[in-house]
C-alpha cells in the first residue's frame, strides 16, 4: 500500500470524523457532535492556527490523522510544536502510515521554525510508545492534570 500525507481539506469531513471517533473510542472518551464541530472549526480557523495532517492510501481513503499546534516554550523564548492527537485506522496499522505522518510532522515543524514537537501518551499505549521511541526521545517529564474550579 502506498501512503501519502497532506493537510486536511474541507471535503474530508466525513472520513476525518470517522477517524477522530476511532481515536476517542481508543481512549474511552465520549465524542459528541459539538466536540467534532469545535475541533473542525479550530482546524480551519485563521485566528488560532491548529493543524491536521492526514494519511491517504492509494484508494484515496484517509487512514490516519495528526492534530498539532504551536505552543510557547518560555525557557527558549520561542515557539515549538505540540502534537495533540495521533490515530491510525486499525486496518492501516503496520502499513507505514505512522512513519509517513511523523515524517510530514517533522517537515511541517521545520517549515514553521519550531525546534521540536512534544506530545504525551497514555502509560499503557505500548504500541504507540514503540512507534514514538523510533522517532523521538522519551523525556524525563511526568504529566499532571488539575481540574479547574
Secondary structure elements and their pairing?
Elements: E1 4-7, H1 13-26, H2 33-43, E2 50-56, E3 62-73, E4 78-88, H3 97-112, E5 117-118, H4 126-135
Protein described:
- The chain has 149 residues and is an alpha+beta fold.
- It has one domain: Aminopeptidase.
- The protein is built from four helices and five strands; from the N terminus they run βααβββαβα.
- The chain has helices at 13-26, 33-43, 97-112, 126-135; strands spanning 4-7, 50-56, 62-73, 78-88, 117-118.
- A five-stranded mixed beta sheet has the order 1-2-3-4-5.
- Strand 4 (78-88), helix 3 and strand 5 (117-118) form a beta-alpha-beta unit.
Question: Could you tell me how far the N terminus lies from the C terminus, measured between alpha carbons in angstroms?
Answer: 49 Å
Q: What name does the CATH topology carry?
A: Aminopeptidase
Helical proportion, percent range: 25-40%
Order of the strands making up the biggest sheet? 1-2-3-4-5
Order of helices and strands: EHHEEEHEH
Secondary-structure-based class equals alpha+beta
Strand content: 15-25%
Tell me the number of structural domains.
1
Separate helix tally: 4
CATH superfamily: Gcn5-related N-acetyltransferase (GNAT)
Number of strands: 5
CATH architecture: 3-Layer(aba) Sandwich
Name the shape in a single word. Answer: globular
Q: Which residues sit in consecutive blocks of at least 5 with pLDDT less than 50?
A: none
Indicate the mean pLDDT: 94
CATH class: Alpha Beta
Radius of gyration of CA atoms, rounded to a whole number: 15 Å
Biggest sheet details? 5 strands, mixed
